[in-house]
Amino acid sequence: MPPPGTTAIPGTTATPAPSLPYTPDYPIRTERLELRPLRADDFEAVYAYQRLPEVCRYLYWGPYEEEESRAAIATKATRTTLRETGDILNLAVVLHETGRLIGDVTFVLTSTEHRQGGIGYVFHPEHSGHGYATEAGRALLQLGFDDLQLHRIQAELDGRNTASARLLERLGMRREGHLRENEFLDGEWADEVIYAMLAREWRALRVDGE
Asked: How many angstroms separate the CA atoms of 14 and 22, rounded?
């Protein structure tokens, strides 16, 4: 049997399971961004994009009315620590230079046993084209692979959301699956596309980038 705190995977040596509870050392800093827990006083900045139909077009929620947005932010503000499978981190994305909140990102611990995670992101469209979502997404992958020692991280998106697909490809994630008309959204059937990355692929990208 593997020693305590490790997970045995057929055909491999035992590796450490995620060390929980896990709270990132906030704020998570990148070259241009800070990722930190959401707060109630983020409402104006978050509602500015949660109310936009073009932002919510390929998502499962919205556009939000004011009270819906306040309730969503209140819930997300509590998601700062991972304790068990299914737990979520919801983090504001803030520009270093101005302190302006430009979007928020999600990290899901989908399985501790199988060392799996998931990522998601929503940004105000006026900040598109600057690589901010890619930079924030890379920080989430680093959190999952380097800090939590996960084996696989996945992202799902509406098959029509080509901009999001390009973002995931810039991160180095692979297109693994295309599920035909498996979701009924906004009165029509939609495809779902799955992207993923393995820990060894992440390590290879890090080596190539050095």
From this structure: 21
